[in-house]
Structure formats: structure tokens, C-alpha cells
Amino acid sequence: MKDMVDGFLEQWRRERPDLDPAPMGIIGRVSRLGALFDRELKRFFAGHGLERWEFDVLATLRRAGAPHELTMGALLDHMMVTSGAITNRIDRVAARGLVERRADPADRRTVRVGLTDEGLRVINTVIADHLDNERRILAALSAGEQAELAVLLRSLLIGLGDSPQ
Q: What integer pLDDT is reported at residue 165 of this predicted model?
């Protein structure tokens, strides 16, 4: 079986037989997978009345553990967006009643963002379905292939400088 990228590689081999386009195969496939993953996740989250970024905010707060809150700065670090974008995102999910801002009791200048009871209910409901959806997306690979791919992708990310904060 061939994918779209195979066709591109064949064209390059025909047009420039002096070059090895193998790196294009890897990068092209990862890029195409990213686009297909985004499409599938957007569709999934829309079915739950969420945008992907809304899920990301709720999931980040849920992973933080009880009381499911972080400072705006910590959220900014975890979300990898600009300070203006995080403020806008928090405004929007707060307007939906999923999070609320709270003054930090230890430092009144610090704002903490926490899940509301409704936000906790939503993320606890959606996360199990989300994992089932991701299993569906990856179903073309066996469990062993998925584990091997995870190791390879981690190595590539680390090699490009991606590491925990």
C-alpha cells in the first residue's frame, strides 16, 4: 500500500535522482498526520461542545490535581501560548462557567485559575471519550507498534530540544 507521500517521493526521485528524498518522507508524513489528527480531534471536541483549546485548558487544570487550579503564569507555561492568548482563553471558558479566577491567598497580586464544579464535570466526562477516540485514531497500529512509535517520536522531540519545563 502507498500513501500520498509515496507519490511525492517518487516524483522527486524521478526529477532529481541525484537526491535522496527520504527525510521528506518522514517530515511529510508527520506533517500530514498532524493535519489529520487536528481534523479528527476538532470533530470529536465539537461533538462535546468544546473547542480543542478549551479542552486543553480544562485538561491542564485537571492534571494539576486538587484543587485543580494553577496561576496564570503556570497555565501560560503549560499551554505554550502568549499571555494575551491565555487571558483571552481564560475569559472565554470563564464566561461558559467552566473556570473561575481566584486571588491567591498567599499573594493577592497573583491570580489563580481553577475549575468550577461544572468544569470538573465536563473534563471528567470528556477525558474517557477522548482516550477512546485517540485509540480509534491509532487503531491501524498494534500495541507494540504504538509503543515503538512513541519511543521514536520522544527521541526526535528530545533531539530537537523539547523537554519538560
A: 59
